[in-house]
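Researcher: For the record, we're logging two predictions in this thread. I'll number them. Prediction 1 follows.
Model: Prediction 1, sequence and structure:
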Amino acid sequence: IGCEDGSVKLFQVVPGGIQFERNLDRRKGRILCLSWHPSDAHIAAGSIDVLRVFDVSSGQTVQRIMVNYHVQKVKRECIVWSIAFLSSGTVVTSDSFGRVQFWDWERGTLLESHTVSTSAVLSLAVSEKEDSIIVGTSTGATYQFQLLPVKMGSLEKRWVRTKPFQHHTHDVRAVAHSSTALISGGLDAQLVIRPLMEKMQKKGYEAALRKFTFPHRRLVSCARKARLLLFQFSQHLELWRLGSTDETGKDGEVLPLCRMPEHLLQLKSKGPEHIYCSCVSPCGSWVAYSTASRFHLYRVQYEGDGVSIKKV
């Protein structure tokens, strides 16, 4: 755990929780990001204007690198927002100057520097094979870097920025790299899954760009007694009856249905306003919803298999 007071604390994972073990060498400056080397022998930590590498066994700082030593006449501080420690010994940092930088931690030297944005690069993630990196910026853009040969058949490789994507409107605060996709989450409350098309064998759901917008309030309400679900959309509501089964089983088991789920009605909102909230009563006889300026209440009546609705 990296702390605002500049300390790095090690905790042991024990049955039922975690247990404090010890502090590593403390220095001035907030710890903003951490990354373990895959060997677990070293930890890289990003701070303001500096990155440090700790030896885990001794707890001492074994390398201190100024991330701005080659920038002339810089007056503002450089914040290292994200860091990754590769098995090759390379440390990758992203910072508030919009740079992604690659460092040789043992020599303390800069290997490569890429300016990808005029504002901050906030997040980065490395693929399992360590041949691809995704970074997220404060402008809503994400970029991919790939480790590619300098020329065809060459053993010498360089990090190359290959793909920019603009799927977010605000800061991209979290990124993840799966074997087949780049995943990013932003302050716009969207989760975006961008497939790497060269990894896809065929078209389908996995090969589609997917955007998930996280709702800020509950969009589904349940009438337990009547076994109904009310789904809220921006301009309409849908009322469904749950399917049922004759069999019993344990939690988590999938049981065969003797009656399929049934769509009972769709209730459209009038006017341009979006539905703000909605609810169905426990007995299933009342449905209510509200826009920013109006409240609507409906009586639902069930006649055999038919359903009728009356505005109250």
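Researcher: Logged. Prediction 2.
Model: Prediction 2, sequence and structure:
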Amino acid sequence: MELVAGCYEQVLFGFAVRPEPDASGDQEQKWTSVADFTHHAHTASLSAVAVSSRFVVTGSKDETIHIYDMKKKVDHGALVHHSGTITCLKFHGNRHLISGAEDGLICVWDAKKWECLKSIKAHKGHVTFLSIHPSGKLALSVGTDKTLRTWNLVEGRSAFIKNIKQNAHIVEWSPRGEKYVVVILNKIDVYQVDTASVSGTITNEKRVSSLTFLSESVLAVAGDEEVVRFFDCDSLMRLCEFKAHDNRIKDMFSFEIPEHHVIVTASSDGFIKMWKLMQNKKVPPSLLCEVKTNARLTCLGVWLDRATDAKESLPLAAEPSVVSKEESQINKKEAGNMVQEEERQSKPNQKCGLNDARNKPTKGNSLVSTKKRKTVETLEKKKRKKKK
């Protein structure tokens, strides 16, 4: 198992963690961490990270997505299609990566050949966050154009658009896809798919910086503060809270391994902490281990050295183009709250390589080596200086 975290200092950290050999007292079991790698491929601060069974990908303010091969521990190259900060990265299984950026685009990448399959002009402003439905056929995105959009990933087009009063900065599906949450500042609106409406609103003390579902009904919420709170999405009640760090928490990640349900937190204080969740979520978790990075952390992921479930790995491109019964039900139920998109996207299935490729020679639909990218950037800088 590897904890990976990006920071303002342009570095991706990797720490291998494992349980200590002496596990006689299971409740008090501690884990040890060992620094495994540092990856310094970006030229600006890291803004997003995503993990598959083999790769870790990072997005940055330098407008690139870098790929790191966790099996070989080597740089695997860069994806350079976006213009503007990469704001969100999500894997669906091991076959597809979906990226969003300040250029308003959502791109679907083949995570085997590292080619762009679809490039969608998603928002008139920035794409601030996206979340993929567990089926892999739908996605939700929010942007600075004050809209929440539902995407048909099979056909690469917008399904519905919902206008919201303010700019939302987080959207997240629940594990079974029966509900989703939309975050605006310190307010978390809980949407139920079966009623296509907001079932309630959770209010956090400070602006929400990260959240993760611990179960279909329990939500872990971190804000611009040192505390993590657990909320019940059905009753909207606070279950518990605990001080996790000495500074604001920037990102969280939760996962399950045999005998452990774990939540990992990363903070501006430079620490990554791993917590063991109790069965009763009203009881605060216990600390398993902590890692000091001496950096201002911005994003977090966990690489588990195991194959992803076969069901998760079904490629989006192999899904039937006919809308499934599940997707149809979701679309119909959301139709009451969402209006049909006013402006049909002119070329929703446009390939990455065709999107302004003539004017941007470093942008493309295939993998670019780090060395080649930096060489091109150096040449372009020299040309600009000569023109001056």
